[in-house]
Amino acid sequence: MNEDNETKYFTKTLLLEAINAAKREGRRCIIPKDLIMACDDDFIFVVHRAYFHNKHEMRLSLAIDFTPQIHMIDVGMTRYNSLPVSRTDRFGNILFENVETTTKKRPYGAGREFEEKFRIKPLRKFNFRKMVLDAYESKCCICDVGAPLVAAHIVPVAKGGRDTIDNGILLCKNHDHLFEFGQIQITPDGEIICENDSLCSVDKMRYPYASHLYPLPDNFRRKIELLNQK
Question: Is the pLDDT of residue 54 over 90?
Answer without folding.
Answer: no
